[in-house]
Fold:
Amino acid sequence: MNDHRTIFFLIGNLLAALALGMLVPAMVDYLSGESDWLVFVASALVTGFIAGALILTNRGSLPPLSVKQAFLLTSFSWLALTGFAALPLAFSELGLSYTDAFFEAMSGLTTTGATIIVGLDDAPVGILLWRALLQWFGGIGIIVMAISVLPMLNVGGMQLFRLESSDTSEKILPRTAQIAGSITQLYFAISVACMLAYWVAGMGFFDAMAHAMTTIATGGFSTHDASIGAFQNPGIEMVGTFFMIAASLPFVAYLQAANGKFSVIWGDAQVRMFATLLALATVSMWLYQINYHATDGGTAFLQAAFNTTSILTGTGYATTDYGLWGPFAISVFFILTFIGGCAGSTSCGLKIFRLQVLIKTGWRYVRQMTLPHGIFVIRYNGRPLANDVANSIVAFVLIFLLSFALIGTGLTLMGLDTLTALSASAAALANVGPGLGPIIGPSGTYASLPDGAKWILCFGMLLGRLEFLAVLVMFSPSFWRR
Structure:
């Protein structure tokens, strides 16, 4: 019989951390005179009680995690955290149903940024802080998972980024746990730097803190309905653009740079392609606005840079309703929604490295057709790429596109128009947040969608954040066999 005590023990510890996190907005609400502080305290007590029960009943000598148990831990920990993180939202004065609260919590922890809350400008301070904290926790969680769990599970080519290898000179630090601790410190330091930059640029202290947490997590939750556009401040937009880009680069590369290997960042093929793609998309949007919308050159460039970066990195901030820019802009943003940033960052989507390997794999097949007896080796960052890695990436992309089609079709069956359904499916799976169109576009919310559609999108957000296969493998009957 399988021993799952380790899974329950670890989930208990995660819930205990979540319960402690609930006390922060409780204190802020109490000091601000908001009545919702009682809701946070009650939610913390319930979450803490369940956490304590799981820890106490499963403590002691625990067996190491098997690969199968790692899959279970990855999915069930995210679901458990979301279920309890929704409690303060469900019982707050916002009057949300549990479906809406679960949707908002899932969007926060997966750093998606899709929201159902209308009237953020008047929402309690504690709720705004809780939403920001959920995205901040989700951001560091996804980085740690990307460097420690996903490479072990060989999910979608992530085995390329194993930190442990037979060549000890390749190791940044001796143990993965140390690397995770170092990245957490780095994550905190960059968040503080972002907060100070926002503050200097003109944000109030609370807004700067909340937006720093959601910027570094590439989550996009804001304290205002108009997102970053509410500030009408070019300096704030430039700060946001810089730190969204910084959060979309591999955090392990930052550790290597801190150890004197500065060339490793630009030496990474995915970083170079990310920068190239971002530059091309920004310039295209800039020229398009100047030629077709007669927008001032400086204003057009800043709008193009900020909103293009926001979509490509999966952050989901907006300074204007780019859905009104015309069909070309909508098409470009729809494509960028799928791509995402670099592996090992807080960004989401397919990831740049998969796009690179997919192109290399396709080109190899073209060359093999012209030279059937030739031997063509795919290389990535100068190293030969094993066929099983390339095949897993191709399979991942196909599963991504199939999931997109199925969720989009399911949403149309619930009465959503085609643009809303397809953009919502893409935004959920790529963890971008805002979709396209008047309903869920940058100036809208997901509040008007039927409950069934919200649960489907919650599943889509979980699929996208946990790299699909970590969730879908549990639907295979062979996974549960001995």
Summary: Strands lie at 379-380, 383-384. The first helix runs from residue 5 to 32.
